[in-house]
Amino acid sequence: MRVRGRLSGLFGLALLIGAAPPPGPAEAAQTARHVDAGRIRVVYEAPKKAAYRAIYEDMRRQRVLERIGAIVGLARLPTRLTYRLKECAGELNAWYAPESRSVTLCYELVESVRKAAPKTTSPAGVTRQEALRGPVAQILMHESGHALFDLLDIPILGREEDAADQVAAYALLQLGGREARTVVNGSAYFFATNGKDETVDQGAFADVHGLFWQRFYNLACLAYGSNKSAFGYIVAKGYLPKERAEGCSEEYEQVAFAFERLIVPHLRVKPGPGKRLQHAFRRAARGR
């Protein structure tokens, strides 16, 4: 997914689900690590630019791509899917390429996010760690949504970019608790920050992506609709208009219904008594 003059997501130097154990000497010597019997492949391309070296080391140590890949790897993929971190000749971007079946995240995007994150806490109460950690899951899961649509031949009604946002939000909200709040708070910070500087002209309405403020409210609504107790602060603090909030439970159920009908049949873990699906997503994200 390439974007018209604006970023498509964020990345944090540590994934939102706690800290993974550092790789052993053998793993540290590799630039690619295979997950799920070859169906998920991750590639960390060593950067030429010295300024990106710390990002390269941190991401490999925290196994960021492996964790997102583990969630997507719950699906029975018909072919291998590659996650790649690389330099992009100055381009701040991330995308899924169907011809190579790969999700790419650029060092340039990572570096720009580090600079834009608040030093401590934003006026809205978003911490630096949330601004760094949360959105990586959103952007990588968004691009993974495109990959799932392509590889699993999933029908899409409406704009694909909106559908990918919904898949990302629904999947990551299943993580629950602090992890889900990190995704919502960090991604909302990104959307709102970029929305303040977004030029709303005729070309913006022609873009395949929604406006940043639209993506902000869509995410906020799905979060609130998924758990009004956990995300009640979104409405209480005025971040989501009450008129929109009234229908958020229905919006979330609509996305959940589509996810269960179109994607769950492809998963190796099926819904069962209790929260079996949620537990599977959490265990995958934690590398267990």
What report would you give on this structure?
Keywords: Signal. It holds the Pfam family DUF4344. It is built from 13 helices and five strands. Helix 5 crosses helix 7, helix 6 runs parallel beside helix 9 and helix 9 crosses helix 12. It is 50% helix and 8% strand. With 288 residues, it is an alpha/beta fold. Strand 1 and strand 2 form a beta hairpin. The protein has one domain. The N terminus is likely disordered. The protein has a five-stranded mixed β-sheet.
Draw up the topology in text.
Layout: H1 25-28, E1 32-35, E2 40-44, H2 53-62, H3 64-72, E3 81-86, E4 94-97, E5 102-106, H4 107-116, H5 128-151, H6 160-173, H7 177-196, H8 202-206, H9 212-226, H10 233-236, H11 242-245, H12 248-262, H13 276-285
Parallel strand pairs: 2-3, 3-5
Antiparallel strand pairs: 1-2, 4-5
Helix pairs in contact: 3-13, 5-6, 5-7, 6-9, 7-9, 9-12
Largest sheet: 5 strands, mixed
> What overall geometry do the principal axes of the alpha carbons give?
globular
- Rg on CA atoms, Å: 18 Å
- Give the number of domains: 1
How many runs of DSSP E, i.e. beta strands?
5
Tally the helices: 13
Q: What oligomeric state is this?
A: single chain
> What sequence of helices (H) and strands (E) makes up the elements?
HEEHHEEEHHHHHHHHHH
Give the uncertain stretches in residue-range form. 1-30, 32-37
